[in-house]
Amino acid sequence: MAAFTSFTIIANYYPPLIGALCEGVTMNEEKQRRMELRKATGSREISGPSKPSFHRGPVYAMSFVCFACRKSFKRHFDVDPSQYPSEIECSECGGTSYNLGRNFKAPKRSDDSQWKKVEFLVEHGFRFQKIRIGPNHHDTVAYPKTLEEAKEFVRTYKQYAIKSRST
After folding, report:
1. Span 97-114, pLDDT tens digits
2. What average pLDDT does range 4-12 have in this prediction?
3. What does pLDDT average to over the chain?
4. pLDDT in tens, 141-160
5. Distance (Å, rounded) from C-alpha 121 to C-alpha 123?
6. How far is CA 85 from the centre of its chain?
7. Angle between helices 15-22 and 6-13 (to 10 degrees)
């Protein structure tokens, strides 16, 4: 019984490749030649570049908060991130839910003082966006932990407050 080598298998199943290799043509050149033949005969269609989505950045789930029922939830939108709504209707009570960005973490429903602090900050234009204060993009301000700290925070960083779209 004859021993099969990889050369024997290639020679039996793809003779044109052996002829090309014997003529000094490299594998890449032979592959390119075959691809050009397929294109010319129409058996190889080359599709154009895929159409990018509306933006090339990542899509984020945005946190929304309803102060009436103290519910927090996340939503995705099929629009450019600059077009995300600042307010939507609450699915629980029908009230207004505010977009507090992708980094917001809601307090427990039973934590009255934290909910008052969050509502105070939102009323004054702070929607838990990052506030960058230095020349380095990593220099951010931490949000306050109490309502008293929030009052000082609003006075100190009022120039960074987000103006509502209606004004």
Report:
1. 999 988 889 999 999 999
2. 55
3. 79
4. 889 999 999 999 999 998 88
5. 5
6. 17
7. 110
Per DSSP, helices labelled H in the chain are: 6-13, 15-22, 27-41, 112-123, 147-156
Does residue 151 come out as left (phi exceeding 0), alpha (psi in the -120 to 50 range) or beta? alpha
End-to-end CA distance of the chain: 90
**Tokens at residue 160, please?**
């960074």
Determine the Cα–Cα distance for residues 87 and 61; give it in Å rounded to an integer: 14
Per-residue tokens: 164: 């509502």
SS3 159: helix
| Structure-block tokens of residue 57 | 């950045």
